[in-house]
Amino acid sequence: MGFFSTILGFCGFGVGVSTGLVIGYYLFIYFQPSDVKDPVIRPLVEHDSQSLQQLLPEIPLWVKNPDYDRIDWLNKFLELMWPYLDKAICKTAKNIAKPIIAEQIPKYKIESVEFEELTLGSLPPTFQGMKVFVTEEKELIMEPSLKWAGNPNVTLGVKAFGLKATVQAVDLQIFAQPRITLKPLVPSFPCFAKIFVSLMEKPHVDFGLKLFGADLMSIPGLYMFVQELIKDQVANMYLWPKTLEVEILDPTKAMMRPVGIVHVKVLRAMKLRKKDLLGGSDPYVKLKITESKAPSKKTTVKHKNLNPEWNEEFSIVVKDPESQALEFIVYDWEQVGKHDKMGMNVVPLKELTPNEPKVMTLDLLKNLNQNDAQDDKFRGQLVVELTYKPFKEGDTSKDLDNPLQKAPEGTPPSGGVLVVIVHEAQDVEGKHHTNPYVRIIFNGEERKTKHVKKNRDPRWDEEFTFVLEEPPLKEKLHVEVLSTSTRIGLLHPKETLGYVNISLADVVNNKRINEKYHLIDSKNGKIQIELQWRTSS
Amino acid sequence: MGLILGMVMGMALGVALMAGWRHMIRYRSGKRISKAVDIKSLSSLNRDDLKKICGENFPAWISFPVFEQVKWLNKQLSKLWPFVADAAEAIIKESVEPLLEDYRPPGITSLKFSKLSLGTVAPKIEGIRVQSLKEGQITMDIDLRWGGDPSIILAVEAALVASIPIQLKDLKVFTVVRAIFQLVDEIPCISAVVVALLSEPKPRIDYTLKAVGGSLTAIPGISDMIDDTVNSIITDMLQWPHRIVVPIGGIPIDTSELELKPQGKLTVTVVRANNLKNKELIGKSDPYVVVYVRPMFKVKTKVIEDNLNPVWNQTFELIAEDKETQSLIFEVFDQDIGQDKRLGIAKLPLIELEPEAPKEIELRLLPSLDMLKIKDKKDRGTLTIQVLYHEFNKEEQLAALEEEKRIIEERKKGKN
C-alpha cells in the first residue's frame, strides 16, 4: 500500500512540477514586456552618495591614470553620429544575413526566419581613455579603453512546424582594451600600410538571451559558463600577441622603393629653331623623371648647332612605371641670363616594354597643353633610345616586416655583415655652428653621413655595412657627431657635438638592436643607432 | 492521497521555480541597465560631476578647457610627421600652384613653387571641440598651431626683372579649423566634409621673406604683393564663409546645399569723400575708390585729379554670400606714377544692413583695418556712400551663381 502510494506520489509530483512550471511561466514570464526602453539618465550632481558609491567601479581610466588622455570629444562625436550608424549597420547586417538565411532555411525544414526588430539601441560605445606608447621603431601604438553598455534589441522570429518562437538578444555589454598598432609607416596617404588590432586582456561580455520571453542568461551558472566560453573563444583568436591584421595600402608599393632602372640615350636633335639673334642656338637637353625628388640630368652643350648630336647615356631609378614618365626639355644655353626653352616632350614609362630598347623620335612642343592654339610652329625633333629594365623579384623584396635578414652570398662562413643604420639625433648643439653629420669608426675603417644644415634634430636614415671574418664580440663602434661650417674666417671650422662608443657584444647575441644613446660631451644630445648582425647560417 | 499531495507539491515547486527565474531575470536585467546608465553618465564628465565623485581627492592634473587637449594625438603626429610631409608635398604643389596663379597680383608675371619641403617640426593641435550646430551635422573645431621650419622657395618673375627665388621661412600658423561632417544613413555614415578656417579668432599666418642670392628690394613692393596674395587666398578660399567641400566617395550626395551660394545683391553708390589727406609733394592727391566684398571681385571708381574733396556718384553692383559674416570694404587710393598710395580704408559689416532699405552712410577712413597696426590717430577724412541690400530668391540665386562661374572662367582665359 505504502509503496504504491509513494509511486503515485512521485508521479503526482512530476505532473505537478510540469503543470506548476507551465502555470508559473504564464503567470510570471509570458506577460513581461519585451520592448527595450531607453534608460533615463540623471545628471551626476543629482545622485546621492549611495548611488555614487555604485558608480565608483566604473570611473573612467582617464580620471584615475595620468597617462591616459581624455577623449570625450570623440565620445560626443560618436553620440551625435550614433543614430545614423545604428540605421546604417542594421541595414547592412540585414542585407548580408538575408541571402544566408534563405540558403540555410530549407536544410532545417524551417518555414521562415525574420528580423522582427533590429536596432543597436540608443547608447553608443564610449571611450574611457586613450593611451599611446612611444617606441624607437617606426610604428604608432594606441590603446583606447572601450566600454559599450548598450541597449540593443535583436528579435528573431522563427517559424517551424507550425510553431513560432521568438529569440531576443538584449542588453549587450562589451568591455575591451584593444591595442591598435599602425605600421609600417609609408610616405603616401594615409601614411600607414597596415592596422594590427589585438586585445590586451580577455574582454568582458554580458548579454541577455530571451527564448519565449524567458532570459536564459539569468539562470545562475549558465551565464557564467557562456561568458567564459565566449571569452576563451575570442581570446584564442585575438588575445595579444595574436592580432587581427587589416591591410590599407600595398606595403611594397607604398614604400616607394625602386622597382627598376630606365636607361636613356639622348641621340640627336633635328631642325631646331634659331633662338639667338646672332648666330645659331647652343642647345642641350635636360631630362628628369616625373613624381620624383631625384635631380634632373643634363647633356653637354653643343654650341652653334641646330642639328646637334649628343649620344650621351643616363640611368634613372624608377619607382612606379605605371604613373611615372620621362620629361625631356631642350634649352638654348646663354652666356648671360636665363636659358631659353626651345621645346619639350614627355614619354610615359608604361609605353615601354621591359628590357626592350626603343628608339623614339619626339616632336618638340611648346608645352603639353593641347588646346594652346598659340603656336603650330615647328620646333624640331629629338631622337632618344629608351630601355626600361625592371629589377628581378629577388632584388626588390627586402623583407619589410622582418628586420632580421641573412647575410648575402660571399660572406665568410664564420663571420658576417655588421649593418649600422644612423637614424637621427636630437638636441645636438654646437658652440659656433650646428650643421651636423655623423662619423663612424670601426676596425680602422671610417664612414661619414651627409651634412644637414642648421638643424638641432637632424635626420639621416643612412645605412653602412662592414664585412667581417668573425663576430666582433670584443670590439667597440665609435660614433661621433660633428659639425662644419663653410663660413670663411672662422677660428673653429670643425667642431664635435658629442660621441658615443657602443659595445658590439650585444648585437652579436641579439642580432638586432635599435636604441637611443646619450652623447658624451653634449648637454642633452641623443643619437638613435640601429645595429644588425647578419650571418650566413 | 499521495498522488494529490505529490501533485500539489509539484505544482508549488514548479510555480516557485518560475517565480525564482523571473526574479533572477529582473535582477540581472536591472544590474545590466544600471551599469549602462552609469557608464553613459560617466562618458562626458564636467568639473562639477568630477568634484562630486572624487570629493577631496580631486586629481590636480585634470582640467576642463573649452577645447579638449589631445596630448596623445600630438605625440602620434610628431612621430608620423616625416611621412605626412613627404606625402603632402606633391599634393600641396598640385593644388596650391593653380591658386597662386589665380590670385597673382598684376605686377608679377609668374608665381610658382621651385622648392617645397615641409620641414621637421609637426603642427600641434592645441585642442578639439565637438558640437552639433545643425540637425544632421557634426561640427568639429580644431585649434591648430604650427611653428614649423619649412623650406619653401617661390620662383617670382616680374615684368622687366629677372626671376628671383624668394624663400619663405619661419612659418608660424595660428588658426582654428572647422570641419563639418554631413551625416547620412549608410556606411561610412559621412557623406561629405566641409573644411574652413574660422574667422573668429582670425587666422594668422606669419612668415619672413628672404631673397636667395639677391635683395628683396630688387622688385619693389614684392613682399607686400606676396603678403597680399597669401591674404587673398586665405580670406577668399579658406576663411568662413568660404569653404572647401570634400565629398566622401561611395555615397552620391547633392553637395550644393553645403556650398556657399550668393545670398543677395548690394547696390553701392560711392558719393563723395571729404577732407582726404594730401600725399603729394606738389599739388593735391588724385583719389579713386576700390570697393569689394571678396578680394576676387573688386570694382573701381574713376580717378578725380587734384582734389581732396572729390565727388564721384558712381554706382556698382556686388554679390554678398553671407550677410552674417561678410563686410563691404572701401579703399581710397591716390593715383601715382609707380605704386598708388592708400589714403584710407573703411569697413561696413553687412549684418548692419536691412534688406530692401536704402541707406546713406558717412564712414570714417582709417589707415588700416588691423587695429594693432594703427600708429597715429591723424584724421584721414570721411567717405560718403549709399547702399541697398536685396536678398535673392531661388532663381536669382542660381542666375548669380552661373554669372560668377562665367566671370571666373573668362578671367582664367584672359590671364593665359
UniProtKB/TrEMBL annotation, chain A:
Pfam families: C2 (PF00168), SMP_LBD (PF17047). One of its GO terms (cellular component) is membrane. Residues 67-249 form the SMP-LTD domain. It comes from the Eukaryota. Its main location: membrane. Residues 240-362, 399-517 form the C2 domain. It is a single-pass membrane protein. PROSITE patterns: C2, SMP. This is Synaptotagmin-1. It comes from Forsythia ovata. The lineage of its organism: Eukaryota, Viridiplantae, Streptophyta, Embryophyta, Tracheophyta.
TrEMBL record, chain B:
It comes from the Eukaryota. GO terms for cellular component: cytoplasm; endomembrane system; membrane. It is found in: Membrane. The chain crosses the membrane at residues 6-25. Pfam families: C2, SMP_LBD. GO terms for biological process: lipid transport. Keywords: Calcium, Lipid transport, Lipid-binding, Membrane, Metal-binding, Repeat, Transmembrane, Transmembrane helix, Transport. The keyword Cytoplasm does not apply. Residues 66-249 form the SMP-LTD domain. It is a single-pass membrane protein. GO terms for molecular function: lipid binding; metal ion binding. Residues 247-365 form the C2 domain. InterPro entries: C2_dom (IPR000008), C2_domain_sf (IPR035892), SMP_LBD (IPR031468), Synaptotagmin_plant (IPR045050), Synaptotagmin_SMP (IPR039010). Its main location: membrane. Belongs to the synaptotagmin family. This is Calcium-dependent lipid-binding (CaLB domain) family protein.
